[in-house]
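Subject: for your reference before the review

Hello V.,

The reviewers asked for a structural picture of the protein, and I figured it would be easier to keep everything in one thread rather than splitting it across files. Below is the amino acid sequence we used in the manuscript, unchanged from the supplementary table.
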Amino acid sequence: MNSFDFALLNTDDHCAARRGRITTRRGTIETPVFMPVGTQGTVKAMLPEALRELGAEIILGNTYHLFLRPGHELVRKLGGLHAFMNWDRPILTDSGGFQVFSLGKLRKISEEGVRFQSHLDGSAHVLTPESSIAIQEALGADIIMAFDECIPYPASRDYVAASTERSSRWARRCREARREGDGAALFGIVQGGMHADLRARSVEDLLETGFEGYAVGGLSVGEEASLMYEVMDCTLPLLPADRPRYVMGVGTPENLMEGVSRGVDMFDCVMPTRNARNGVLFTSFGKVSIKQARFAEDPRPVDPDCACYVCRNYSRAYLRHLYQGREILASVLNTHHNLHYYLQLMKGARKAIEEGAFIRYKQEFYRRREGCGDKD
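And here is what came back from the structure prediction:
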C-alpha cells in the first residue's frame, strides 16, 4: 500500500507559487520546502536533534556515497538509514547519477548503466537503473529518485538529445524495478539540457511512464541564473499540478525565491552547509564572510533580525575567532545559522502564499538585499 500523497492547499493569484503538503509513511512535509543535504547519512556539523529543532521535515541521503561506504546492505542490516542515523522523519535519496557522472574519466556510460571507479579506492563498480533502485530501497528512503544522467553544461544538442532519450528509457526501467508495497514514492527526473523542446519531450516520456512526483534535473550546472529560470519557465507548467515539483541542486536564496514564484515545491542544495564550513553566512541583507578582519571586534550578532540560537547567543567577533582558529564549533554554529535562514525563508514563503501575499514577500526579500539592511 502506497502511503505517499500530495495535497495542493493554496495557489497565488499573481504568480505560480503554490502551497502544498506531502504525506509520507514517516510524516508530513509542508511545501515549498528546502531539504538539507545529508550526503553520507549526516548533515555535516549537525546533530539530528538540532535539525528537528530547526524544523527540518525531510533531509537527503546520497546513494552513491552510501553504496560505497558503509554499503547499503550493512545499512539495511542495521535497520535502514533512518535507524542508522537516528532520523525519524522523511528521507529522500538521490539516484547516485549526479555523483557518478561527475567522475569524468573514471566512468563509462552505456545503455546498461554506468561503469565507474570509486573515488575512495579506485575499485570498479556498475550502477544501473535496477541497482540504483535496489540500493535506495535497501536504505529505506521515503522518496527515491529515478536513475538518470545529469547532462553537463555546455553540451552539444546531439549529445543532450541522446542522453535525454536514454534517461527516459532508464526511468521506465526504474519504474519496472520498483518493489511495490513498501510505501516509498518514486520521482522521475526531467532532463533535456537548456533546450525547451527536449525538456518537453522528456516530460512527455515521464508522464507516459507515471511517477508519484517529478523533478527537474540538470540545472545549477554552470549556466547563468537567467537561463536556469528560462528552463523552469518552459518546464514546470508542463508538469501535473497534483504532483510535487522538485528542482534538484538549487540553490541560492534568490534561486529559491524565483523557483517558488514559478511553482517549485521542493529544493535541495549543499550551499548553506558548504558555505558555513567556509565561513560564509546567509542573512536577511545578503551574504557575510565572517573571516573578514572588520568583524574581529564586532559585538553584534551576524543578523540582528535573526532569531536563531547562534544570533541570540554569539557575536560576529566570536564566530570570526572560531573560524580563524579552525575550531570545530565554527562549522557547527555557522551551519546552524545558515540552515535556520534557509528553513525560515521557506516557512515565510508558505505563510505568504497562504495569505495571498507572496509577491510582496518576494519584493521585501529583494529590497532588503539591495541596501536597506545593516551590511556593516
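For the response letter, the relevant points are probably these. The CA atoms of residues 114 and 224 lie 29 Å apart. The radius of gyration is 20 Å.

Happy to draft the paragraph if you're swamped.

O.
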